[in-house]
Design a protein that fits this description.
By secondary structure, the chain is of the alpha+beta class. Helices cover 16% and strands 29% of the residues. It has three helices and ten strands, in the order E-E-E-E-E-H-E-H-E-H-E-E-E.
C-alpha cells in the first residue's frame, strides 16, 4: 500500500455499515535496505583528495514509500566505507585462489566522517578521499 490518505469502505451483506466509508492515513513502514537509494556527487563524480565529498542516502519501505518521519537510531544504522579498487581486486583474487566464491570483503580504508539526517527522510553522508586511485 502506498502511504497517504485512503478511503476504507466496510459493508455487511452488501450494504455500507454506519459511517462507511472511512478516511484513513497510511504511514510508510519500516526501512527496507533493498529500496534505499544513493545519489549525489559522492557517487556520480570523481573525488579530489583532501576534499570533503557528500552523497545523499534516501530511505524507503518495502512498498517504495519515502520515510519522512524520525526513526530512532536510524542514523546509527547507516554505515559507509571506502576501499580502493586495487584493495578490493586483491581480496577477490585471494578468495578465488582459496576456492571461495563469495563477494569481496576487503576491509574499508576510510569511513564516512559523519552522517546527518535531512528533513525529508534523507541522510547526507560525508567522506574525505585521502589517497588517489586509478
Amino acid at each position: 500500500m502506498r502511504s497517504g490518505l485512503h478511503q476504507l469502505a466496510i459493508q455487511y451483506d452488501g450494504e455500507d455499515i454506519k459511517d462507511s466509508p472511512f478516511w484513513v492515513f497510511a504511514e510508510a513502514g519500516a526501512v527496507d535496505p533493498r529500496n534505499v537509494t544513493v545519489e549525489g556527487p559522492g557517487i556520480t563524480s570523481d573525488a579530489i583528495c583532501g576534499s570533503l565529498v557528500s552523497l545523499i542516502i534516501r530511505v524507503k519501505d518495502t512498498h517504495d514509500n519515502a520515510i519522512n518521519r524520525v526513526i530512532p537510531d536510524l542514523k546509527d544504522k547507516i554505515f559507509c566505507s571506502i576501499s580502493p579498487k586495487e584493495k578490493v581486486e586483491k581480496e577477490q583474487l585471494k578468495e578465488v585462489a582459496e576456492g571461495q566464491e563469495k563477494e569481496a570483503t576487503a576491509g574499508p580504508e576510510e569511513t564516512c566522517l559523519f552522517v546527518t539526517e535531512g528533513r525529508d527522510g534523507s541522510f547526507i553522508a560525508t567522506y574525505e578521499a585521502t589517497s588517489a586511485g586509478e
